[in-house]
Amino acid sequence: xKIGDLAKRTGLSTHTLRYYxxxxxxxxxxxxxxxxxxxxxxxxxxxxxxxxxxxxxxxxRDMLRYAALRDEGDATGTSRRQIWKSTGNRYARRLPNxxxxxxSLIPRSPAMPATNRGRRKMTHAQTQDESRFDRGQRALSRIxxxxxxxxxxxxADIAPDFARYVIEFPFGDIYCRPDxxxxxxxxxxxxxxxxxxxxxxxxxxxxxAGLNVGLSRDEIVEIIMQMAVYAGFPAALNGLFAAKxxxxxxxxxQASGExxxxxxxxxx
Length: 268
Known about the structure:
Elements: H1 3-10, H2 14-23, E1 30-31, E2 37-38, H3 43-55, H4 60-72, H5 77-94, H6 99-103, H7 114-120, H8 132-143, H9 145-154, H10 160-174, H11 182-196, H12 200-212, H13 217-231, H14 233-259
Antiparallel strand pairs: 1-2
């Protein structure tokens, strides 16, 4: 079904659906011959579940983490229960005697639609019909979001070929390889950029990316602290200060969205 039809059936705006798709809460829809998104009907069950998560007050970052863990299978049950416990505590504070209502969602939690899981495991041989640029552009939008797109756009007037290389090689070739998940790739990237000690702008972009693919703030802080052992205290300190700036900017953006009555799609 087309995105307009999906919006009508779910009650979500097309802007919200595109945002959910970009950050990885929804599978990337296949395109029809005219290039329009064509969603499978099975996505309706997953969107309904996301709506229940939103009702509990679960933040987007926790929804992303829960979706990633659910996609990895039964071995992540303990971590998922911890997310539910934290959500249940917040929900109970908001609405007395509501803990059971929150907990009742757990048995009905569906898996991420198969189209998304298949994309994650897709090999290069399976994506030959998709150009490196298109594949990289899709990955860039999902992982780095607006921060990554801004970096590429800033190169357009001075080195457009290099902007294309940024999309095609790291995102079209490396990030799309099937044997390592996006969370693991961002852990490695954040650690490496922290250890370098001279890549603050790139580190900030990938701190945003880590949050986009489901890393928690506590996990990011631990990754950076770990680098003190191998790269020294100055590198770790610089990394922590960069993280502090990114977290503060996110908080400000969220507060601004809430002040606007929730009209900002980033907090939809």
